[in-house]
Amino acid sequence: MLITCLNLPGFCLGKFTENADIQCIKQMRFGYFRQTIKQGSEMRKTFEQQLTLGRLPISETPIPTGKRGGALPKLCAALKEIFITPEWNERIFEILKAKITAGKKQTGRPGMDLWQIFVLSQVRLCQNISYDELYDHANHHQMIRQLMGVESGFGYEKYKFEYQNIFDNVSLLDDETVRELNLIIIEFGHGVFKKKEVEALCLKTDSFVVESNVHFPTDYNLIVDYRIMEHQSDSEMVRPIVEELTSQYNILSWSFDKGYWHKDNKALLEEHVTKVVMPKKGKRNKQEEEEESQRQFKLLRNKHSAVESNINELEHRGLDRCPDRGHGHFKRYVGLAVSAYNLRRIGQGLIAIQRIRELAEQELKAAA
Hints:
Layout: E1 2-7, H1 18-40, H2 71-84, H3 86-101, H4 114-127, H5 131-140, H6 142-148, H7 163-170, H8 175-192, E2 201-207, E3 218-219, E4 222-227, H9 238-246, E5 251-255, H10 263-272, E6 275-277, H11 286-292, H12 295-304, H13 307-319, H14 327-367
Helix pairs in contact: 1-14, 2-4, 2-14, 3-8, 4-14, 8-14, 9-10, 13-14
């Protein structure tokens, strides 16, 4: 599987330190958080929560901001932000509606709503859990239940999901739908991290095997593209990836390992990318030796190793082995793992913003 990753210059989520970067992040991102909170009380939602007596609002779901909260609070922070922000709410809803409810009559026993399907599909891959464990989370995990809009206050009857209902509905998503969702999630990440589409990106591409394959991390460690390799070599995957991503993004640098090298691949990349890092396989001529000995080439090649940490995280989040049977389900599983990874990364940034907001409020109280 191929993944291509993107990282924001100067803001690597895996290496964020509040003390060193607090002033910079306050200036860049504090305003965004305040704005989204204000919107939450005025907006018109497309994912609508069916409020009943005693039901707790999704928009008030408490998200732990502690540094040792694990992956789930980060995922839930991103999902909550999507729900309370009209633009992302509506666009995610439209994709799911077109796939799941289009052409179906609204009769018979009601199933899970689209928001609940979206949340549980992401929770399963973020936590790398089975459907049995997902069933338990859906019925007993308070934060997830409130985020889905089914948690009730003390003394009120609790809504319970059936196992088969969860399995059947989460399984409705396919690879094409998940790819569309991930494009929206990437745009969402751009907004959170204040990354403008016109700004140049630094990409890294690599691959690994999922038992029963992913390439592409970017500057802020979001996966902007993924491919399932079906009997292709690494070098054969370069042209379609380059043609797609260069039509969408302004790319400053792009690094690969030796397995992707081919003179045609390098020539194609150099037409679109300012700095291409693609070490040659085998013996190099004098010009190639000089190129690969340049300081910038060496720096970018050393940074390329960071993609291994992205791959390692994906493998710990479910992409070491796919438990779902069938080729279509395998592709969906890979896509959901990528989208859950991206949402967790975005949520990590949102929680960092919230910590800074809370710290600023504490400083104001202390000064008063």
